[in-house]
Write a structure and sequence with these properties.
alpha/beta, 12 helices, 8 strands, globular, binds phosphoenolpyruvate
Length: about 250
């Protein structure tokens, strides 16, 4: 069956020392009280090599992005192979901040996903509508197009390696969370879109995380939904105690 996962997204926060300290603190807390789900932290590139040896098997480590090119003259870019060489196992792709501020299109994301998979990284692939789209009741259409355009070129075998994260853009960093009913409704729809393309077994095995102002007080209610398989957590992943509170949404 599909995995339950709580993944942190540190975004552009915490210098190297602060990041290392947070990872150590989180490891100690989870060593003392084992989680009932997989736990992942996605960090800025510069933290990866320092953090992967510290957290062992207890916490998966991921990047927040990778390049859409394999290697070469792309100043400032970091390739999927470089991310994998740090011991990281995951990479967030298609986050709404990358789509909005860095103009990442489905064409670009398609290449990133392929390179991530070729380097044995698990993409945590983000999809989600903006407020105007939700208000126009276009959320299903939007997420279907995002998945179709960037992922449906994959074989069923490769698609099975993807984790999806539904993140309504209006809920990211805003303190406004999708209600458990809204989350369940669209997660079930996303699973049906996957089933239509790859069949029920692949769809049933796909982890679909919810992201958008998820915190210790709303995590349990969100994670209780049958199609919500965990969370992608921004703000609440920056303090060990808060992140643990979200992870405990599965207890
Ligand atoms: C995110 O950026 O993936 C996210 C969900 O952020 P926040 O939890 O802060 O809304």
């Amino acid at each position: 069956m599909r995995k339950k996962i709580v993944a942190g997204n540190w975004k552009m926060n915490l210098n190297l020392n602060e990041g290392v300290e947070l990872a150590k603190e989180l490891k100690n807390i989870l060593d003392a009280d084992k989680p009932n789900c997989d736990v992942v932290i996605c960090t800025p590139f510069i933290h990866l090599a320092s953090i992967t040896p510290l957290v062992g098997d207890l916490i998966g480590v991921g990047a927040e992005n990778c390049a859409d090119k394999e290697s070469g003259a792309y100043t400032g870019e970091v390739s999927a192979a470089m991310v994998a060489s740090t011991g990281a196992k995951y990479v967030i792709l298609g986050h709404s901040e990358r789509r909005a501020y860095y103009h990442e299109t489905s064409e670009i994301l398609k290449d990133k996903v392929e390179l991530a998979l070729a380097n044995k990284l698990t993409p945590i692939f983000c999809i989600g509508e903006v407020l105007e789209e939700r208000e126009a009741n276009k959320q299903n259409e939007v997420v279907k197009k995002q998945i179709t355009d960037a992922l449906f070129n994959l074989s069923a075998e490769d698609f099975s390696k993807i984790v999806l994260a539904y993140e309504p853009v209006w809920a990211i960093g805003t303190g406004k969370t999708a209600s458990p009913e809204q989350a369940q409704e669209i997660h079930a729809y996303i699973r049906s879109v996957v089933a239509e393309k790859y069949g029920k077994e692949v769809a049933d095995n796909t982890s679909i995380l919810y992201g958008g102002s998820c915190n210790p007080s709303n995590a349990k209610e969100l994670f209780a939904n049958p199609d919500v398989d965990g969370g992608l957590i921004g703000g609440a992943s920056l303090k060990a105690e808060n992140f643990k509170g979200v992870i405990d949404g599965f207890k």
